[in-house]
Amino acid sequence: MYNLLLGLFLITFQVGCYGAPGPRMNGKQVVKRAVCTEDQLDKNPGCLYWKQSGYCDYEYVKARCQESCGFCDPPPPQPCKANENDKKNGCKSWKNQGLCKNGQYHQFMKENCYVTCGYCIAPPTSPPRATPAPQVDPDACLKAHNEKRALHPGTPMLVWDDALAQHAKTWADHLASKGTLEHAENTGEGENLYYFGTSGSYVATCDDAVQAWYDEIKDYDYQNPVFSLSTGHFTAVVWKSTTRVGAALVKVVDGGYTKTYVVARYLPQGNMKGRFAENVLPLAS
């Protein structure tokens, strides 16, 4: 009977997985040192789980888990080596859920989220270089307008007006802040608006806007020269009596979506009722 009990005792001294690693024993005391030496580092992936389960006074655990059980302080993390990196996309989320210090997940996190869990120190990343806000290129914008006007013989070229450009910028900022596209009222200036949105990073230009406005020519009826909502941008671009232009654009990134607002202002303003025939000249034949 004694031999049978002794055999059962020996069998239960150590079990597999992360279960209780054996009976509670009173053996030699482990002297705590300031920082764990190589021989004191955890020798079993189940150490943190056993510690959280209250097994640190078991001899088997004492011998193998001095680091997790607090008999010494873990050494400070060292700079990450080339092979020490996060291998899963969910590391930050799992860390926020406390899994880095959860004994049941400790080994998985150590193998897959080495940097996020702080087992090594990642090199500092350089802050992103500040990039200037996109702006309208006055020369390019003016050229885009005048190239379209040149297609209509007798239509004079425009000149750039900084004051109009500033007015356009103020209104573009307003549109971007509201996330809408609407004309300003009672400015005494002609106005064209353009919006472009993309899930990519492309920022539209004044050239893009002018092309979109001019494309309305396909719907303009020279036999019935009147204002129409479907051609009003085109007629503003080529309006003969207009002599000055200024424009601005604003970029907004919202939820991964890049939005560009372009505003152009004109003086004298076009699209005046009863004056379309004399100001919207036909294409060269």
UniProtKB/TrEMBL annotation:
Disulphide connectivity of cysteines: 47-65, 56-69
PROSITE patterns from the UniProt entry: CRISP_1 (PS01009), SHKT (PS51670)
Domain ShKT: 36-72, 80-120
Stored CDD domains: CAP_GAPR1-like
Keyword tags: Disulfide bond, Signal, Toxin
One Pfam family recorded for the sequence: ShK
The keyword Disulfide bond appears for this protein: yes
Extent of the signal sequence: 1-19
Domain of life: Eukaryota
InterPro entries reported in the protein's UniProt record: Allrgn_V5/Tpx1_CS (IPR018244), CAP_dom (IPR014044), CAP_sf (IPR035940), CRISP-related (IPR001283), SCP_GAPR1-like (IPR034113), ShKT_dom (IPR003582)
Keyword Disulfide bond in record: yes
GO-annotated cellular components: extracellular region
GO MF annotation: an example: toxin activity
Stated name of the protein: ShKT domain-containing protein
Species whose genome carries this gene: Pocillopora meandrina
